[in-house]
Amino acid sequence: MIPVVVALCGTFLPEWLVAGVMSPIPFRASPYLSLVYGVALVYLPFGICLIYKGYLTAGKIDNLAPRKQSDMLAATYPAYARLIGAEKNMQEGFPLFAAAVLAALQAGVAKDTVSLFATAWLVFRGLFIVLYAIQFNAALAALRSLSFGFSLALTTKLMYLAAAA
């Protein structure tokens, strides 16, 4: 229920707040480049899982039944399971982000504004992945949830900006 409320309230996310939060970040990705970086972020947990799987299996990666092997590793190694969870969450969230960026551009929202929100999404989703991978207590889990919520609000704000243009 909370993500629904965050999504519906995304319109109230002020640009000055996002700009303030992003002020320490020295770059802004162009809207289209943010989509490329977003794809890379989607597959970052998978890449880390693959390296970790190689380590855990001493290089004996089962390419005939990779999901079965991953399920077995996830049942035994909590960090591996968290990385799989991060990957699934990224795969679920990226299509919404991509649609929001493309809708904002198509609607004529200023590229600087789209770049600000898209770069903020990249930063918070990157933070989400890190927090998901390392969480070992409730405080880190709460920060992970906050980063997810803020990135969802950024996505829906882009959609609202597109709708208002």
From TrEMBL:
Residue ranges crossing the lipid bilayer per the database entry: 30-52, 116-134
Subcellular localization, as worded in the UniProt entry: Membrane
Principal subcellular localization: membrane
SUPFAM superfamilies the UniProt entry points to: MAPEG domain-like
Alphabetically ordered keywords of this record: Membrane, Transmembrane, Transmembrane helix
Record bears the keyword Ligase: no
One Pfam family of this chain: MAPEG
Protein name: MAPEG family protein
